[in-house]
Model the fold of this input.
Amino acid sequence: MSHPEFRNVAIVAHVDHGKTTLVNAMLEQSGVFGDHGEVADRVMDSGDLEKEKGITILAKNTAIRRKGLGKDGNDLIINVIDTPGHADFGGEVERGLSMVDGVVLLVDASEGPLPQTRFVLGKALAAKMPVIIVVNKTDRPDARIDEVVEESQDLLLELASALDDPEAAAAAETLLDLPVLYASGREGKASTENPGNGNVPDAADLQALFDVIHEVLPEPSATIDAPLQAHVTNLDSSSFLGRIALVRIHAGTLKKGQQVAWIHYDDEGNQHIKNVKIAELLRTVGVDRESTSEAMVAGDIAAISGIDNIMIGDTLADVENPVALPRITVDEPAISMTIGVNTSPLAGKGGGDKLTARVVKARLDQELIGNVSIQVLPTERPDAWEVQGRGEMALSVLVETMRREGFELTVGKPQVVTHTVDGHVYEPFDHMVIDTPAEHQGAVTQLMANRKGIMTSMTNLSGDWVRMEFDVPARGLIGFRTTFLTETRGSGIANSYSIESRPWAGEIKDRASGSLVADRSGQVTAYALQQLADRGNFFVEPGMEVYEGMVVGANNRDEDMDINITKEKKLTNMRSATADATVTLAKAHVLSLDEAMEFCGQDECVEVTPNSLRVRKVLLNATDRARARSKEKARNK
Done:
């Protein structure tokens, strides 16, 4: 019996270099959407948050079938994994690479290789995978194609020389002989010929990309006649089928109704084997999954149901010969935050219907099933948990997702995950690359110095732009983005990736401004806002409900101030010339979730509800806060 030929490939790149747009064009040219099907823009970014932020958060797979283009006239099936470009979602990248045999590295024709390019390329080289370089967006007016190709190949050599494994280093150096492709994902064209800066590749379609993937990438090293071995790389769920596991078949065949050995692990890492039945087998067709009664063979990526507690990293094996595959390993978390139930006086009034500790804990446990890069740890309180992840963005995406599901939460300020070696405290460091106009160079240097950043290099770019590179503690980047954009007037570009743990760098001051804190509950009045207008910038408007201990604005000074934001104008029977004058108030600054988490001080937290976001003190009562400060001072003497 003849079988299709397979190629399993991951598309990796820095965020916003056009991965999802290119995959869209590949799907469209392979007839996935049908003759009359609606072609959605960036169809792989299916989540609401992915569409809003314009980034890929979850690694997803699709199958592109090229009829008759495989060996001996069989079909060629290209299983494509669209991975995130942001380092905070690095667990998704590592999981995606465990499913494939090669990588297409997409590089922007103007921006060139950026920090996340280095991050994902390093992971691919360590796994000894062939890498095809594709220079995308060649039609950009500011494209510099030759320089970008040279920078990408230099990066390949640099990462190859840094690898500990000599075999992986030797394999990486041979990648320079592979062809370079030039593409415009938006136009759906690719070529092996350099079209010149600012031009669309001289090709009718993406056939050159399909050809190079077929010729350069290896066939999956899989034996169809061997005992079954399939690796669980992702999880999904369906109201009809229950938990669905996405598996890469490394050996043997898999079919509906088959008895398999499920090799899984408990919390201590002990291995267990249980015989189970495959209730449903699904094949990926384009972006959809379809049930199939045919056997799926080694080299393919399948979806199965029927095993309720299956987890990422488990193995499905032959009943007679159960051999486990290596478990998926991801980098350790660098950032943590406390997530608990909403304990504010306005709890239950923010539009949420999931308020109790039991449902919050159940939701966090559910997140652990499919998200390999986070950890949930208990705290001293029974209604709060410490959630650890790769970065601030990964954790804020989790909180925003829970908020949209109807949860009301109290979220603490992000902290770094430290560890102690020989009595010394170590913390994670990041490498930060900043592109900014030369006029803001001094301000950015000062900003990074205040956050214990150490400059490692500085180069002049075209058009009075400067690229500066820093090694900086990860905690120095908490709340960095807003201040950075203010200092560069919105024109600066900053990207970072994790490098290593180093000794504790010392104290870093959180922010220059203090908080304006409501000293009583009630409704905000226009009269109070007018009287307090010179104290700072407010987050609230007249008529909003506040409570004691709620942060209602940012103080101009670097200290907290308790204010009466609910004060009303006293009525009098004396006539006043200004009685009917129109009062003009400055517009309130409505904080987004990311801004609220950045603004949050050490003794503050964020109240998250579906309808509102509020920053508040952990201790609401002013007397309790003063007592806590006194104890802290006494302890530090």
The radius of gyration is 28 Å. Residues 34-47, 49-59 have pLDDT under 50 and may be disordered. The longest helix spans residues 145-162. DSSP finds 14 helices and 35 strands in the chain.
